[in-house]
Amino acid sequence: MADTADRVVGGLRTDGPTVLAAYGALVRSRVAAQASYRTSFVVDIAAQVLIGLVEFAEVYVVFTQVSDLGGFSFAEVSLIFGLATAAFGLADLVVGHVDRLPFYVRTGQLDAFLLRPLSALGQLVTSDFSLRRLGRVAFSLLVLVIALAAVDINWTPARVALLLSTPIAGAIIFSAVFVATSAVGFWLVDGTEFANAFTYGGNYLSSFPFTVFGSIVRRTFTFVIPVAFVAYLPALALLGRDDRMGMPAWLSWSAGPVALVAWLVALLVWRTGLRHYTGTGS
Amino acid sequence: MIVEVADLRREFVVRRRAGRLRRTRDVVAAVDGVTFSISPGECVGYIGANGAGKSTTIKMLTGILVPTSGTVRVCGLDPVLQRTALARQIGVVFGQRSQLWWDLPLRDSFRLLAAIHRLPASAAQPRLDECVALLEMEPFLDVPVRQLSLGQRMRGEVTAALLHSPELLVLDEPTIGLDLLSKERLRGFLVRERRERGTTVLLTTHDLPDIERLCERILVVDHGRVAFDGTLPALVARVGAERVLVVDLVEPGPALTDVPGTTLRLVEADGLRQHLAFRQEETTAAAVVAAVSARVELRDLAVTEPDIEDVVRRIYES
Amino acid sequence: MSLAAARPAAALAGAGFRRWSTYRQAAVAGVFVNTVFGVIKLSILLAVADSAGGTVAGYDRIGLSTYAWMSQGLIAVVVINAWTELADRIRTGDIAVDLARPVDLQLAWLAADLGRAVWALLSRAIVPILFGAALFGFRVPGNPLVLVLLPVSITLAVVVSFACRFLVNLAAFWLTEIRGLVTFYFLVAGLLGGHLVPVQLFPGWLQTVAYATPFPAIIQWPIDLVTGQATGWAVGGVVAAQLGWAVVLLGLGRLVLSRATRRLVVQGG
Q: What is the distance between the alpha carbons of residues A126 and A111, in angstroms, rounded to a whole number?
């Protein structure tokens, strides 16, 4: 779509910066704006580490009572927890603010986005960049490293590749969930809270082995909101275990394709939402 | 034609609470069959009362809102389907919504917009320098936008809309809330912009001097329809827009009913203050003042201009 | 409180109720979120009970379900989340207007908060509890004393929660940015109050830490009345301890507020 503009306008603009450079400039400006408030930035990072700590406290408390949960040991659940919260933290860092869409609509900021020659979603994503959430990612990675040392994994090149790619694929899946559920905000003024049920709820649920959940919850969060692919299923493959509930083993290696499909669905939902917005106005 | 609008219509569904639980659902046409076109280089004032459908029309022209029916072409493009392509050829200033980054200095906002419009530095910098000089923005270029006064911010907004040298500039209430000096500076800048570059301008305003200074053509919308399309003198002739001379007398005097070319509108404080309405094509303010001071002793006087609301109301009455 | 003071307090509580009752869509969204989180939390706790052989720390399956849904319902009523309304007024200086009013600042905010809590109880708490009770089971307390004291206990939970939030917000008199502090507060209060896992499941040292704070008075104790974790004399003890925390924390709030306003008067804001 953007390319038609170059054709219409002619020579002057095609030699300018690329679309990527435009987004790059937007992201850099956000980072610079945050770094300028150094004191509160440090406090915010500490608060994010604390969020991770409190989340992990639940796992810790549970294992002071029992030695296995849904058939998994403390170290194994910690591995799942580390993978899930690292992926969620990364997604939250990059796109976490999209659930504030109703705020952008109310203040007219979305209209301002629509008046610029870039995609509205692209501008929304690059309009904020919560570097403080690095604190949470760092804590998750710490848990992950300790858990990896504690569990018994039969390392193969395929498993190493799986371990390295899982947080990335997981972050892509979570960001698709963020975008798709945030688009609810095009219809509902209080869309943020609805979106949180799936984003924050997805983070909570994916930090535990899926064997603890009932079949409706398990299927919903595997096939509709695909957060099972973020941590639980890849962890099975790393540990060399089968799903007690009978999920085929190849699903454990499918986070990449699932992430792709999740984003296609998310973009479709977003486009439908944006059409609804420009259709009804406000 | 740079703007072509034919039989444009936009409906909204309004839900009202009727009673404790019942809700009614009404369909209201904010824009109800509007047709007009604008040639390159024109400056058109788009005026009407609040709720007449001005902002709705502008949203449809800029691709933010889809028409219920009818056609819109701007710069030969379909605003909604070719939104990003259109965004490169038009500049928009909404008086109430900002294109700038509130936590960044104005200079950085401009740099970002140049990147967003993919302008090579060779094109962006001279244009920016020109705007900065003409709008006297140098002293506050490094101040974060949130700390700017409304007048300073508005100069930034207009620059932001013009940075990519658009063919069409759309201004929605650009002078609202500004002091007289800021308004005049902005008008002067826009007059020069049109003269130098032939930029087409479409503006909505409540401020009649905006129209007098800038527009040779006026579209009046009322209840979602075009009620008038023509020049300002033609509009004034049609509705007979009146100016009003308000005189304060040294001591209470008789009602000034016999001043040639005027109608006595209001007498206050036992005749200490009197309002005399007159039409520009029949007499002048100077002649009226002379006639009044021949009858009574004046202490003070003021001339008030007809306001847009008044003009629009008269259009509808006539 | 005298009758003369009770009337404006009732009016303020009514205003608090009406103000929040306009946000109906938000209430529906809140119910949905609380229900989803309730299902997840309960699933994890039931798996713990399964591993432990049916009961854990005195909770059987029905007991855990009762805990999970009571805590999801209560959380909306006692709001441990990021409430910064008072801090915002302090930061903007609007607090001076509030201080000039002929009502007690702390009691006025408390009355409004109680009004909000009544609305939250009706709109956000009841539905998740009924949903959970229908699907996962619920233990209705048989002790008539509990049924009488439960409303008192929930009210005191709101008062203690308010008193804590009031103190946290007062920090805005000294700090320019309290977002980090508020985040810190609601995370710690939620964990130690027993919102994520019942305090009875904590290891000994963490239980000691939790019971040294007022946070169990906000969440865990009212739930203990319903689940039967508190029985006999302990029922009265729970309410008495809540009352103690309420008095101490409200008093501390008044002390800090008077320090802060003296500072405001001396420095001129």
A: 16
Of residues B270, B275, B263, the one with CA closest to residue B302:
B275
Residues of chain B with pLDDT under 70: 17-22, 241, 307-309, 316-318
How far from chain centre, in Å, is Cα C155?
9
Q: What's the average model confidence in pLDDT over C216-224?
A: 96
Distance from CA of A184 to the nearest CA of C (A): 11
- Say yes or no: A245 contacts chain C, CB-CB below 8 A: no
Confidence of residue C133 (pLDDT cuts 50, 70, 90): very high
Size of chain A, expressed as the number of residues it contains = 282
CA distance C99 to chain A (A): 29
Beta strands B273-279; B225-230: pairing state? unpaired
Tell me which of B82, B86, B118 to substitute to probe the interface with A (most A C-beta atoms closer than 10 Å): B118
In a domain, A236, yes or no: yes
More confident of the two residues A16 and C25:
C25
Count the Cβ atoms, other than its own, within 10 Å of residue A106: 13
- When the candidates are 3.30.70, 1.10.1760, 3.30.479, 3.10.450, the CATH number that belongs to B242-317 is 3.30.70
pLDDT at C263 over 80: no
> What are the residue ranges spanned by the domains of chain B?
32-237, 242-317
Identify the band that residue C80 occupies on the pLDDT scale cut at 50, 70 and 90.
low
Task: Answer yes or no: is pLDDT of C269 > 50.
Answer: no
Nearest to A22 among B94, B115, B120 (CB): B115
User: Considering its fold, how many domains does chain C have in total?
Assistant: 1
CATH of span B32-237: 3.40.50.300
Q: Classify residue A5: in a domain, yes or no.
A: no
Q: Which domain holds residue A265?
A: 16-280
Cα of A174 to nearest chain B Cα, Å: 27
Handedness of CA A143, A146, A147, A148 (dihedral sign): positive
Distances in whole angstroms, Cα of residue B315 to Cα of each of B51, B219, B244, B310, C162: 16, 12, 19, 9, 59
Question: What is the spatial distance between Cα B110 and Cα B126, in angstroms, rounded to a whole number?
Answer: 12
| pLDDT band, very low/low/confident/very high, at A11 (cuts 50, 70, 90) | very low
pLDDT, position B269: 80
Residue A2 belongs to some domain of the structure: no
Categorize the per-residue pLDDT at C19 as very low, low, confident or very high, splitting at 50, 70 and 90. Answer: confident
Task: Name which residue leads in pLDDT, A29 or A13.
Answer: A29
Q: What is the mean pLDDT of residues A49-68?
A: 94
Q: Please name which of C7, C231, C246, C16 lies closest in space to residue C121, comparing C-alpha atoms.
A: C16
Domain boundaries, position C39: 3-267
Question: What total of structural domains would you count in chain A?
Answer: 1
Is residue A180 in some structural domain?
yes
